[in-house]
Write a sequence for this structure.
């Protein structure tokens, strides 16, 4: 952060300024969620605000790009591959991961849906649109709960069942539906929500 901020002042080094910024913003997670307006509100210069927001976005994109080809044949491996998609989000987002026959990640359609802090409406047909275009034999759904609690809602379970049914009709396997919270996740397949 000190390198991104650039320089210190006569009274404090860039490292001291970076630590002070982290304290004022509320830590690394809060920094990742902050936009330039929030950073300016806590005293960060215009240039440093833009640099910090850009650096956080580059970090997110690097983490996401590194997941192509990752195995997603267990909930643990899928969660490890998809978790970077949900770091620092304040609103609910749903993504669809396209998988090959060996359940390796081809691409993530992100965000397929973006909702509010309390939910995301989903149209089942749109979950499969890219899989049909790319001839992907399987998909994996994932979304976050901004509350931090990954416990699936009744709507999550209903959407999963409808998507699994639609996938069977289309010949595209819904491998799993993961719900991410604050450092935790739940596999809807594992809890029996596909029945």
């Amino acid at each position: 952060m000190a390198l991104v901020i650039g320089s210190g002042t006569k009274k404090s080094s860039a490292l001291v300024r970076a630590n002070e910024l982290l304290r004022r913003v509320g830590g690394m997670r809060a920094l990742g969620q902050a936009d330039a307006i929030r950073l300016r509100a806590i005293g960060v210069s215009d240039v440093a605000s833009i640099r910090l927001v850009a650096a956080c976005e580059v970090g997110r994109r690097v983490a996401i790009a590194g997941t192509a080809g990752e195995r997603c044949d267990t909930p643990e491996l899928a969660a490890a591959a998809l978790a970077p998609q949900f770091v620092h989000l304040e609103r609910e987002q749903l993504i669809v991961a396209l998988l090959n026959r060996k359940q390796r990640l081809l691409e993530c359609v992100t965000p397929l849906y973006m909702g509010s802090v309390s939910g995301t409406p989903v149209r089942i047909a749109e979950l499969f649109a890219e899989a049909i275009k790319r001839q992907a034999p399987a998909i994996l759904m994932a979304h976050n709960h901004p509350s931090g609690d990954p416990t699936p809602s009744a709507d999550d379970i209903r959407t999963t069942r409808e998507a699994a049914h639609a996938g069977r009709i289309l010949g595209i396997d819904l491998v799993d539906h993961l719900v991410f919270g604050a450092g935790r996740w739940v596999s809807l397949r594992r809890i029996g929500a596909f029945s």
